[in-house]
Amino acid sequence: MKKKIYIAGSGGMLGEAFYRIFKKDYELKCTDKDVNEPWLDFLDFRDFNNYRKEVAEFNPDYLFHLGALTNLEECELNPDNTYLTNTTSVENAVLLANELNIPILYISTAGIFDGKKDFYDDWDEPNPLGHYARSKYMGERYVRENANKYIICRAGWMMGGGPKKDKKFINKIIKQLASGKRDLYIVNDKDGTPTFTVDFAKNVKLLMENEYWGLYNLVCKGETSRREVAEEIVSILGLQSEVTIHEVSSDYFKETYFAPRPPSERLINKKLELRNINVMRDWRIALRDYINDYYSDYLADKIDDGKEVSITLKSAV
Fold first, then answer.
1. N vs C: which end of the chain shows fewer Cβ within 10 Å?
2. Which pTM was predicted?
């Protein structure tokens, strides 16, 4: 008999990776309020009574609470919904896991730090700047202080899900290039660590199956900047001779991206290294695999204003 995992909030980029990595070895129940895949069922986990009913009926061996409101500007404009989604629903999930005496997985973020240090390991003290970061940190603290058994994983700059689910920096850059844009304006004052969702799910699986409960930084190897990520995307797509990258400060985008963001979100997987269980690859290798795996069809033949834009992906090294 396969063990059972209830995965709440699995309709996004991270949920897609967890379904991909766990579906062979476990019986899964995947839910989200956005039912965008045939393997998803509807659940708004902010509705505690339905959440409790769903989880109790499935009677899982593990509860994965993945979903969150991650648009920082939306979080600043709608703080009540932010804390309802990112904090109180997590408290409810902990209660459900404790009632069934099963471990819970919670996803935290590098964004809970204030960016005053260049690097953060697993034991550095968070200091959240805005409503998104604060709501996620309060969720993290509640799990740490109240769950019977838990794994908390702090992710960095997430990449995954492909053109339909990825709403982050990498997808935005790729879509600009695919539409024919050859001038990119990239901030020069934000550093971090990319995190490929598929590698992330694989490392979570190892932690869970080894019963290494606790809190972990979980990001790709190699720290970087927004500019370096943009340059690598351009290189992977073979557009170095066509694209010009213009460095700008965050103030350049302040009307659109007005929520506070730390200057550094660089994480170090210190605990994973100490346990000799860090399987996260270098971000450049992961980025190349991500684009080849998720974007090949999308980029094969794009049309912009009647002009064909053909992009040939380089083979992975």
1. N
2. 0.93
